[in-house]
Design brief:
The structure is a homodimer. By secondary structure, chain A is mainly alpha-helical. Helix content of chain A is about 65%, strand content about 0%. The longest helix of chain A has 19 residues, at about 10-30. The interface between A and B is large, with 41 and 41 residues. Chain B binds a DNA duplex through helix 2 and helix 3.
Chain lengths: ~200, ~200
DNA sequence: CAACTAAGCTACAGTTGTGTATCTAATTCT
DNA sequence: AGAATTAGATACACAACTGTAGCTTAGTTG
């Protein structure tokens, strides 16, 4: 699609995708704080001038990369299986969190310099996702169908799964496995909505 | 103890405390990634040479500052009030998390460059604390006294409170208030240990 | 094929941070 | 009081990154 044909010079879309990828890789390696135009350019094997033609600083590049990253897959609650659907929702969250985009967002959220700029353009796209559309989608689905009282859909309950996954990742530095996701659902979410095991 | 007397030049302990404070202030403002000897020195109003005499790079200074920061207050479970003690434990956690040391640790944990070095010397002092000694202390206390079955002390239950506080802080950027702490205890922790309201 | 666009290359001056070194003078110790 | 420390004030060469600018040339478009 891009390599191997006679061309020696990338342009447009292709080049930009390479730069986006470079920005995400770079932030993963050095963190948002040490992100530089130079580093991104070097990694993308393109001159800095190409970057400056489009963006004014490294965080701009990163935000643009995030904006163009694949959207997060949404959980699609299915066949009357609340427990299974919750686990699946958390699985999707983990998958996203360890994607280049997810890791970049994590970095941005704790960076004093860029946390503010995040609010502007990206809240719609990235924040909405991060805010907890994973288990919340599933929980709302089953509450509407009367599997448990809708009054239990408080912020605590809606955040529970994502919060525990996040803490695991921070503590352990690696994604939780199937067993841990099941633990979270069985020992925290289900009890909190009054379904202590079934 | 230090200001106002005739002295014009800080030495030893006093100077070091100023440098530690500068490092913590600096990391709060620019993040771990942009921490520099220069920045710390400027903020502490001391020449860089003074820093290099003791530390070899900015992260060393920061780790040393953390090591010498006040230890976290531990929750002391008291008069047969599980709910109140849990809320108090979370209150202590929030207090620590928003202290200079807490903010610095948060920054370090998500910085690719310094996350590794953290493991070495500081795991004992700072990690142990962060790992969740807040609600865990309280929960173990009451489990031992038979207020609820000890089998429910799983990692999920022990992390629940801290996880939800952390998520609140990341999402909202501000400390949770009393109402939120109560929500966490009432809607997540107590149900998870089988005490759904009383 | 000609004209245009935009990537690639190189250079440059300016800024910030790095380590090191040297000298001075304030504070402490004996 | 005199000696030993050690903070404070420079200064320096080096490196990385910044923006900007000029030029060349590959690729696209009419």
């Amino acid at each position: 699609m891009s390599d191997g044909d006679g061309r020696t010079r990338r342009r447009g879309e292709e080049l930009i995708r390479a730069i986006h990828a470079a920005a995400l890789a770079e932030v993963r390696e050095v963190g948002v704080g040490r992100l530089t135009m130079d580093g991104i350019a070097r990694r993308a094997a393109t001159p800095r001038s190409t970057l400056y033609r489009r963006w004014s600083d490294p965080v701009e590049v990163l935000l643009d990369a995030l904006y163009h990253s694949h959207p997060v897959e949404e959980p699609t609650p299915g066949a009357d299986d609340l427990r299974g659907d919750l686990i699946q929702a958390l699985r999707l969250m983990v998958e996203w969190a360890f994607s280049p985009a997810g890791l970049a967002v994590a970095g941005i959220l704790t960076d004093p310099g860029s946390a503010a700029r995040m609010s502007e353009a990206l809240q719609e796209k990235v924040f909405a996702v991060r805010g907890g559309t994973f288990t919340a989608t599933v929980l709302r689905h089953y509450a509407e169908r009367g599997h448990f009282p809708a009054e239990r859909l408080t912020w605590v309950v809606l955040d529970l799964g994502e919060a525990l996954v996040t803490k695991w990742v921070i503590d352990k530095g690696c994604p939780p496995g199937e067993a841990e996701l099941a633990d979270i659902v069985d020992q925290a979410i289900l009890p909190a909505i009054g379904l202590s095991g079934g």
